Amino acid sequence: MATNGGGGGGGLVGAGGPKDDDGRTYLLQIYPRLAGQSSDGILNNLRSRFYKKEIYTYAGSILIAINPFKFLPIYNPKYVKMYENHQLGKLEPHIFAIADVAYYAMLRKKVNQCIVISGESGSGKTQSTNFLIHCLTALSQKGYASGVERTILGAGPVLEAFGNAKTAHNNNSSRFGKFIQVNYLESGVVRGAVVEKYLLEKSRLGGLTFHPH
Ligand SMILES: Nc1ncnc2c1ncn2[C@@H]1O[C@H](COP(=O)(O)OP(=O)(O)OP(=O)(O)O)[C@@H](O)[C@H]1O
C-alpha cells in the first residue's frame, strides 16, 4: 500500500529509491509556482530536479510530478519499453513507471489496482491521466495498435466540451472529477474502459440556460 507524502527532503529520491509492494501507487501533481513559496526541503529538492528537466520525483512510493508547461521528449514508445516490467526505483522516476507497476501487479496478483491523481488546478492531472492511459494500453497491446487507446482518449474531448472551462489557472480546466476504470481480459489485453464523472460544477450550467424573449 502506498503511503501519503509528508516526510522531509530526505524522503525524496530520484532513481534507486522506493520499493512498491503491491503496485498501488498515488500520484501527486505540483504546480510550479508552489516551488517558490516555501524553504521546505521537499520543495528545494523538487525545484533543483525541475531545473534539470527532471519533472518526476519519488517520495516514498508516491510519484510527484511538476508541470513543465512544455513538451518533453520522454513519452514516446521507447520510454514505454524502457519502463516495461522493471522494478520501481531502478530507473529515473517517470509516470510510465507507475502505469507499469500497476499493470504488472494486476497481472501477477489478479487484484484491481488504483492510481489516484491529485493536485491543484493546472498542475497537469488530465495530461498525466492521458499519459497513464497511453502507457497502460501500450503495455497491453504488445506492439500492435488496437484502437482502444484512441477510443478511450477520444472520450476526453467530448466530456471536456461539457465539463471544462477557462479559469485563471488553466485555459482548459476540468470542472469535474473523473473516475476511469480500464478493464482487462485475463490475458492482460485491454477490453475497454468506463468513465464516471463526479463533482460536476453544476452552478456553471446556469450560464447555459435558454431565456426565450
Ligand atoms: N507533462 C506535461 N508536459 C507538458 N505539458 C503539460 C504536462 N502536464 C501538463 N501540461 C500542460 O499544462 C496544462 C494544464 O494541464 P492539465 O489540464 O492536465 O491540468 P489539470 O491538473 O488537469 O487542471 P484542472 O484541475 O484545472 O483541470 C495543459 O495545457 C497541459 O498541456
UniProtKB/TrEMBL annotation:
Myosin motor domain residues are 26-213
**PROSITE patterns, sorted:** MYOSIN_MOTOR
Biological process GO annotation list? Answer: actin filament-based movement; intracellular signal transduction; lamellipodium morphogenesis
Amino acids binding ATP = G119, E120, S121, G122, S123, G124, K125, T126
UniProt-listed InterPro entries: Kinesin_motor_dom_sf, Myo9, Myosin_head_motor_dom-like, P-loop_NTPase
Which Gene Ontology terms of cellular component type are present?
Answer: actin filament; cytoplasm; lamellipodium; myosin complex; ruffle
- Tell me yes or no: is ATP-binding among this UniProt entry's keywords: yes
Compartment annotation: Cytoplasm
Q: Name one GO molecular function term.
A: GTPase activator activity
Q: Which UniProt keywords apply?
A: Actin-binding, ATP-binding, Cytoplasm, Motor protein, Myosin, Nucleotide-binding
Indicate the principal place this protein occupies in or around the cell: cytoplasm
Similarity comment: family membership = Belongs to the TRAFAC class myosin-kinesin ATPase superfamily. Myosin family.
PANTHER family referenced in this protein's UniProt entry, alphabetically: UNCONVENTIONAL MYOSIN-IXB (PTHR46184:SF2), UNCONVENTIONAL MYOSIN-IXB-LIKE PROTEIN (PTHR46184)
* Protein's name in the database: Myosin motor domain-containing protein
Organism source for this protein?
A: Oryzias melastigma
Q: What is the lineage of its organism?
A: Eukaryota, Metazoa, Chordata, Craniata, Vertebrata
